[in-house]
Design goal:
single chain, about 290 residues, alpha/beta, TIM Barrel, eight-stranded parallel sheet, two-stranded antiparallel sheet, 12 helices, about 40% helix, methyltransferase, Hcy_S-methyltransferase, BHMT-like
C-alpha cells in the first residue's frame, strides 16, 4: 500500500498570511497561534494525506529559551505540536509523525543543507535526545527523523531515539546520489539496516528529480520500505531567507517513484495541499497506514 504524507506545513502557513521569518519558523506559532497550525494540518488531511508531520522540526529547548520561555513551557509546546496534529484529523484514522529536524535547523542558517557541524556523534545524540524523549512521550504514531544532511547525524538520531518505543523513519536531504555532506547514499542508508525501530528510510527536502535513484539505493542498502517527500525543486537561499528557481514537483513523477520502491510519498517545502491532492489522486487506490 502507498501511504500519502502531507506537504510543506510552513508553505501552507505562509499562504495563510503568517510571517515565519523568525528563527523558530513554524514552531513560533505553537506559542502564538496554535489554531493556525491545526488549520494547516487539516488542509493537508482534507487533500488526502494520511500522515501529518508536526510543527516541531525547528523547535528545540534552546530555541524556546531564547524566546524567554522556561523549560516547562518549552516542553509544553513540544507536546502541543503532537496534540495539534492529532486535533486536526478529519476521519480520526490519520497518523501523526513527530518531526525531529537536524541540528542545523535550529541554527536557522541553512546548515541542514550542508551538515558537518564539527560535533561528534555523541554530542549530536545528546542534543537530540531530550527533544526526542519529550515528543515520544506525547504519544505520536511515529517519529520523523528528517532532513538529515550526513551520516554522522543519522547515527546520532538513531542513538537518540533508541528505546523510546515509537517507530520512526529516517530521511536524508540529498544531492544526487550523495548526502548533502557528500557521502555516498549506500553508506547513508545502510545505517538503518537491521534496526527494527526504523520502519522506512528515504529522502526529503530534495529535488524531485533525485527521488527515483535515491529510492532504489535506499531499498537495496537498508532492506527497508522507502519514504520520499521532496520539496518543490526550488532552492533555499539561507542568506536571503527565500526560495529561488522554478518548481518541479509534479504528480507525474510519482509513477517513477513507486516503480523505484517508494511506499510512503508526499512533499516537503513549497508543496501545497493542492499538490498533495493531485499526488493522492495519482496513487489511489492504495493509500494506507505505515503500520498496515
Amino acid at each position: 500500500m502507498t501511504v500519502v504524507l502531507d506537504g510543506g506545513l510552513a508553505t501552507e502557513l505562509e499562504a495563510r498570511g503568517h510571517d515565519l521569518s523568525g528563527e523558530l519558523w513554524s514552531a513560533r506559532l505553537l506559542a502564538d497561534d496554535p489554531a493556525a497550525i491545526v488549520a494547516a494540518h487539516r488542509a493537508f488531511f482534507r487533500a488526502g494525506a494520511t500522515v501529518a508531520t508536526t510543527a516541531s522540526y525547528q523547535a528545540s529547548l534552546a530555541g524556546f529559551a531564547e524566546l524567554g520561555l522556561d523549560r516547562d513551557e518549552a516542553v509544553r509546546l513540544l507536546e502541543l505540536s503532537v496534540a495539534l496534529a492529532r486535533e486536526a484529523r478529519v476521519t480520526g484514522d490519520e497518523l501523526v509523525a513527530a518531526s525531529i529536524g537536524p541540528y542545523g535547523a535550529t541554527l536557522a542558517d541553512g546548515s541542514e543543507y550542508r551538515g558537518r557541524y564539527r560535533l561528534t556523534v555523541a554530542e549530536l545524540a545528546a542534543f537530540h535526545r531530550p527533544r526526542a524523549e519529550i515528543l515520544a512521550a506525547a504519544g505520536p504514531d511515529l517519529l520523523a527523523c528528517e532532513t538529515v544532511p550526513d551520516v554522522d547525524e543519522a547515527e546520532a538520531m538513531l542513538l537518540a531515539i533508541e528505546g523510546l518505543d515509537v517507530p520512526a523513519w529516517l530521511s536524508y536531504t540529498v544531492d544526487g546520489e550523495s548526502t548533502r555532506a557528500g557521502q555516498p547514499l549506500t553508506e547513508a542508508f545502510a545505517v538503518a539496516r537491521g534496526n527494527d525501530q526504523i520502519v522506512a528510510v528515504g529522502v526529503n527536502c530534495c529535488d524531485p528529480r533525485d527521488v527515483a535513484a535515491a529510492a532504489e539505493i535506499a531499498r537495496e542498502a537498508s532492506g527497508k520500505p522507502v519514504i520520499a517527500y521532496p520539496n518543490s525543486g526550488e532552492t533555499w537561499d539561507a542568506r536571503a531567507r527565500g526560495w529561488t528557481g522554478e518548481p518541479r514537483f509534479s504528480p507525474d513523477l510519482v509513477r517513477d517513484w513507486l516503480a523505484a520502491g517508494v511506499a510512503y510519498v508526499g512533499g516537503c517545502c513549497r508543496v501545497s495541499p493542492d499538490d498533495i491532492a493531485a499526488l493522492a489522486a495519482a496513487v489511489r487506490p492504495g493509500a494506507g497506514s505505515p503500520r498496515g
